[in-house]
Specification:
The complex is a heterodimer.
Chain A: H1 3-46, H2 52-64, H3 67-81, H4 88-114, H5 118-125, H6 130-160, H7 172-183, H8 186-215
Helix pairs in contact in A: 1-4, 1-6, 1-7, 1-8, 2-4, 3-4, 4-6, 5-6, 6-8, 7-8
Chain B: H1 2-17, E1 27-32, E2 35-36, E3 40-42, E4 48-49, H2 51-63, E5 66-71, H3 77-82, E6 88-94, H4 97-100, E7 103-105, E8 110-112, E9 114-119, H5 126-129, E10 135-139, H6 143-155, E11 161-165, H7 168-177, E12 182-186, H8 187-195, E13 200-205, E14 211-218, H9 222-236, H10 239-249
Parallel strand pairs in B: 1-5, 10-11, 10-12
Antiparallel strand pairs in B: 2-3, 3-4, 6-14, 7-14, 8-14, 9-12, 9-13
Helix pairs in contact in B: 2-9
The chains are: A mainly alpha, B alpha+beta.
Chain lengths: 225, 252
């Protein structure tokens, strides 16, 4: 067997283990981002006028600074200044989550605004409070419509997660680098890492497409499947 | 479906509650540059391995403390040590006066020479490599990167270009690609690359004084330093030390 192939086969279990780390970082960040993004989006659409600049500031701030700068800012700056000892893994999830929240909030905002205005009026007519209407009428529909945008976000975070290797998170990229410096088989190993990322992207997008079909609103989806 | 959501919620919560375990017994964390064979790297199973890893394991066993090795970026290894993210750096670290201002070093355990690595078929002299218009690779955050910049470029006014890399093996890769004329590094990783049949050779030294490797610790950890030094002194007298040198550094 040629040496490059041997190096890849040798490293494969170790790299695949790394894809598990990558996925946990990505899913953790997406979940964390989701929990922040929903209130942000609701505040931006329905919130009081005073809140608007704050939400806009958040979005502008977290969309405007490169990921690597944030990672270092949190890990070596904030954590050290506040004397909190968070692991590189936790910082990666939090920072990716905070940035993702900014993007996700805009996906949800777009989805909320795309719903007919009559929906909330109808909820009020049924005697629901505004909060109830948003929670039980608006959001369930808006979230369904957000899935395509969400799968886009997934693929972006998945790729961004490779940057966290700079903090020492042993995800796919870090592991590939370790093996490459030991074996000097750079080309085949980075190619293998690329393939693993491609597969992970494909799996995630397939999964979300499946979810989209499962929960689509009959007669009110972007396209009939 | 509901169960799944609950599980996911619990999992996310757990993520944030996972703080460094304040277990009864402290586990000392050794921050390593896992891209620095033969002193520190990860083996096929992803387990940290290398000369420094094996040596520290022996010392830990001898002195009765627990240690784990954590790979991380070399560039930020001292900030990590000071921020208490790691407790010791046993990973081919050169003892320098600048570093001594921030950290304490153990007794020196290995002498290292800085060399220039070029392609095997290159007909170059060290003088030609240091000439104007040529490019030399270094690993970011290393003593050689600093020394070359301060002495050869700023003091002597030599006009070659310094190119920064994440690790010595990546610099070697670019020597092979022909992007840079040579890479400056410690002689041990250079010999390691040659032992792995890479088509490179050691061109020679470039005037940088020899250095010694030592383990770096925080200034306040004097008791721990005592343990490390006692263990290291003991280890260097054992046949196991010679074996380590033979296995990791002198391998042909």
């Amino acid at each position: 067997m040629p040496e490059p192939l041997l190096a890849v086969l040798d490293a494969l279990p170790y790299l695949l283990e790394g894809s598990f780390v990558t996925l946990v970082v990505v899913l953790g960040a997406m979940a964390f981002g989701f929990c922040l993004a929903v209130p942000l989006a609701v505040a931006q659409v329905y919130g009081p006028r005073r809140l608007q600049p704050l939400v806009a500031l958040y979005v502008w701030f977290f969309r405007g600074i490169p990921l690597l700068v944030f990672l270092f800012l949190f890990y070596f700056g904030l954590c050290t200044a506040l004397d909190i000892n968070l692991s590189a893994f936790t910082v990666a999830v939090v920072v990716l989550g905070l940035i993702s929240a900014a993007y996700q909030s805009q996906i949800f905002r777009g989805a909320i605004l795309s719903l007919p205005e009559g929906q909330l009026k109808a909820a009020r007519a049924l005697g629901m409070s505004d909060a109830k209407g948003i929670l039980f009428i608006i959001l369930p529909q808006a979230l369904r419509l957000s899935i395509p945008g969400w799968s886009n976000e997934y693929s972006i975070i998945l790729k961004d997660s490779a940057v966290t290797y700079a903090l020492g998170v042993t995800e796919i990229m870090a592991r590939t680098h370790f093996v490459a410096t030991r074996t000097y088989q750079h080309m085949p190993l980075y190619a293998a890492a690329g393939v693993i990322f491609l597969v992970l992207t494909w799996l995630g997008i397939r999964g979300l497409r499946f979810l989209e079909q499962k929960v689509r609103i009959p007669g009110y989806s972007h396209h009939e499947f | 479906m509901r169960k799944a959501w609950q599980l996911a919620a619990v999992a996310v919560l757990c993520l944030f509650l996972v703080s460094p375990a304040s277990a009864a017994e402290k586990i000392y964390v050794n921050g390593i540059d896992a891209n620095f064979p033969p002193f520190a790297y990860v083996d096929k199973k992803g387990v940290p391995d290398g000369f420094d890893i094996k040596a520290l394991d022996w010392i830990a066993k001898d002195q009765g403390f627990k240690v784990k090795h954590q790979p991380q970026d070399w560039d930020s290894i001292v900030p990590s040590l000071l921020a208490k993210k790691i407790d010791i750096v046993a990973s081919g670290m050169s003892i320098t006066d600048a570093r001594k201002k921030q950290v304490n070093f153990s007794i020196p355990y290995w002498k290292i020479q800085q060399v220039l690595v070029a392609r095997k078929d290159a007909r170059l002299t060290v003088e030609q490599v240091l000439a104007a218009g040529s490019k030399i690779g270094v690993q970011r955050g290393t003593t050689e990167a600093k020394w070359i910049d301060e002495n050869l470029i700023k003091k002597k006014g030599l006009k070659f270009q310094l190119v920064q890399y994440d690790s010595a093996p990546l610099a070697i890769e670019d020597v092979l690609n022909g992007r840079i004329a040579a890479a400056a590094m410690d002689d041990a990783p250079a010999k390691d690359a040659i032992s792995k049949k890479k088509a490179v050779k050691i061109l020679g030294t470039f005037g940088m004084p020899d250095e010694q490797f030592g383990y770096a610790l925080r200034k306040e950890d004097t008791v721990f330093l005592g343990k490390i030094n006692a263990g290291l002194k003991k280890l260097m007298k054992t046949p196991y030390w010679k074996e380590l040198v033979k296995t990791y550094i002198d391998k042909k």
